[in-house]
Amino acid sequence: xxxxxxxxxxxxxxxxxxxxxxxxxxxxxxxxxxxxxxxxxxxxxxxxxxxxxxxxxxxxxxxxxxxxxxxxxxxxxxxxxxxxxxxxxxxxxxxxxxxxxxxxxxxxxxxxxxxxxxxxxxxxxxxxxxxxxxxxxxxxxxxxxxxxxxxxxxxxxxxxxxxxxxxxxxxxxxxxxxxxxxxxxxxxxxxxxxxxxxxxxxxxxxxxxxxxxxxxxxxxxxxxxxxxxxxxxxxxxxxxxxxxxxxxxxxxxxxxxxxxxxxxxxxxxxxxxxxxxxxxxxxxxxxxxxxxxxxxxxxxxxxxxxxxxxxxxxxxxxxxxxxxxxxxxxxxxxxxxxxxxxxxxxxxxxxxxxxxxxxxxxxxxxxxxxxxxxxxxxxxxxxxxxxxxxxxxxxxxxxxxxxxxxxxxxxxxxxxxxxxxxxxxxxxxxxxxxxxxxxxxxxxxxxxxxxxxxxxxx
Length: 458
Known about the structure:
This protein is an all-alpha fold. Helix content is about 75%, strand content about 0%. α4 (about 55-85) packs across α17. The longest helix is centred in the N-terminal third of the chain and has 33 residues, at about 100-135.
């Protein structure tokens, strides 16, 4: 008897009568979705934030190493869940099955909002960079950001083949561009570094408890920046062989993403002294200027605009699958399960685009990433807890892949998540209350959604 997630009598009929998701995706799309979503605005903004908090070279790189270890510990557990419960919609499906409807709703609700918020943050950066490249855009950055979101919504309306094709192409282009940039930094960036270091004041490093707080804030940026390595789990129903392809895509994504980030940050630190990185929101551009002269900034901004489009495309696809899955389970408006002939949940896409546009008009980039990092780790906490619960609750569940190092790797990821949340509450008393408030608001929203969707069994 199969122990994969049981279908309800009503939900499958509802989905079939309104179209269905297409099972046409593979491991390369899963890696492309993760790279496209993850290698985004944070690759240029996060180093400056982190170096300001921990202006020591080894601690600066150590923050990224810790973030990579956290991701690796979680990857094995995520691969087990993604292979065993191959539904589109992301971590929501795991928490709902293991912990119940309301915990599942919290994960789905916060994941949807945080992904839409990520879309807005990326679109804002596209607008800002484009204004530097094309002065005529100055003063119209938010309008451009909204236009970009609407443009990708129109693209994905055509179907999953359009969205997946755009993802594969843009992820390949951005990966190649950053590999070339890293090579250029190490090959050409050594000249004049000593003179630059002598002319740049060294930042004052904190000590003791203040240093620990700074390291925690640095981790906050890293967790936000590397989040997305599990992108393939948002498309479980659409992957051709999820039992094999989902774990392969997750591990391929983790190693690719952490490798790119570590190499890029090490390359920037090789070209620039810490004093030139700390507080610099575009340190990669500064390093490129040192290598390519006055054209460096333009080159990097052009690369970033193209690469950020890949992130927009991936996040739009993530958002629609979250709402689609919740709708099928009766935890969101049932019409959000409507799928067109191209395999796109159309109402879910529309609602996600609207929320992303609202984020653009109401929040700043740095505020968005600090608030969203709390959401991401809170969801990971419930997901890793779900591994333990399902191992005990459903020991006979079919598991094509079992977490390596269980229970130690899963436990390490869970403990790390809990410690991060505690530290975030203490270290960031400006943005974390907003995140907690949105989580508290989830209960009345859950109650309303259940009431309106009571005819759809969960």
